[in-house]
Amino acid sequence: MEWSTAYINDLSDSCFAYIEPGGEKDKEGKTVPRSLRHLPYKDIDGKVDLPHLRNALARLPQSNLSAEAKAKAKEKLMTAAKEHGVGEYDKLAELKIPFFRMGRWKHPRYGTIEGTQQVFDQMKANFKRQVLGRQPFVRIGHDKDSAGVFGTAPAEAWIKDIVQEGDYLYVVADTTNEEVVKAVREKRYRFASAEYDPNYKDRETGLPVGAVLSAVALTNEPFLTKLPDAVVLADDQKKIYLDYEEDEKNMEKEKLLEENNSLLKKLADTLTGFVEKFKPGQGSGLSDDDKKKLAELETVKAELAAAKTDQEKIKTSMWVTMVDGRIKDLVAKGIPPVMCEQTRAILLANPVYETTMIKLADGKEISKADQMYAILEALPTEHRIKMGQIGAQTSPLPADSPEAIKKMADEDVKALGGKVTENGKYTL
């Protein structure tokens, strides 16, 4: 109901959020002039009127009151808003839930699970594109596998965004009930576990789109560990770490690289010391200690040569792993395998492509490797191969043999609607 000026004038002083000083009280105990009274939010009976409380909260920032007066009025209005669930208290709290992080794990059922930047980017992009066709949600625990009927788990919150902070991926979700907010605040549920498909196929197009998140389960026994706590937004975020089983291979490689770098530094320091000894004015030669070190130099040099060899092997191994991972993803996206294999051969023959930067016509700088990947990614959808066709393209021949490459090329052309003539030529 709209309040008339007469109705507002009849309200008692306690119905207003703020009353300016300098007025007087009439015989009814109300301030005069009435213009000193601001932002009415209670009715004639002294009860909070929700529409006028909302109106007062909205008008307060634009009012001509002083900063001090606004602060006093806001305190009074916010007290009423909190009590009656108005304004920022209209909606339930939001949850910020970490559900994935960079790393590699060995799952007893699903095999190796990898958290990479590519997976993160796919999840974020597919969420924004609404590839799933519905809004992902937050459940309590994973009850899907044991449920008699799927789809019966209630949504404790609806996911409205996926954000990345450093090595962690979070969902931000609007809660549907106070119980789940209280459970998170009280740390009865601290962690989360993602439900996602790493190779999701769009149900409308049938094409693979990469990783898609379908739900997040609040749990105290997550498979992916070393995740921060789930939090109610505006609460302090604390972290706890648990034991976990990660793939140790690359970690061992990185550790060995560090050891080899230390050995290089040791040799450099030793040689630097010797050089200083022979500079003019730096003494009369080597001390007994220096001579002892010199005797050890040959041993250090031999260790260094072996370390260099190991280091190159490690770098090569890591480069092969990286390239194979990207090539596998490209094949999954429908890029013809023969194109991917040719690119793989070039990249593995030239590991330096990872760091060799080239400048494009638009001024952008990119590594040669990334540019080659980008060329494959640019293949139009209509020329890509559906996942169901890829399985038929395996060959008992060595993958890098000319016969195997020719066979894959023939099958790619056929899959794209072309023909292979008797003499091996292609027609589209």
Entry summary:
By secondary structure, the protein is α+β, with helices and mostly antiparallel strands.
Mean pLDDT across the residues is: 75
Shape: elongated
Number of helices: 11
Parts with pLDDT < 50 across at least 5 consecutive residues: 144-150, 234-251, 279-283, 387-397
User: What integer value in Å does the Rg equal?
Assistant: 34 Å
Class by alpha and beta content:
alpha+beta
Question: What does the secondary structure layout of this molecule look like, with pairings?
Answer:
Blueprint: H1 5-10, E1 16-19, E2 24-25, E3 31-32, E4 37-40, H2 50-59, H3 67-84, E5 94-101, E6 103-107, E7 111-115, H4 117-128, E8 137-140, E9 157-165, E10 168-175, H5 178-185, E11 191-201, E12 208-219, E13 231-232, H6 249-277, H7 288-332, H8 337-349, E14 357-359, E15 365-367, H9 368-377, H10 387-390, H11 402-415, E16 419-420, E17 426-427
Parallel strand pairs: 8-12
Antiparallel strand pairs: 1-4, 2-3, 5-10, 5-13, 6-7, 8-9, 9-10, 11-12, 14-15, 16-17
Helix pairs in contact: 2-3, 6-7, 7-8, 8-9, 8-11
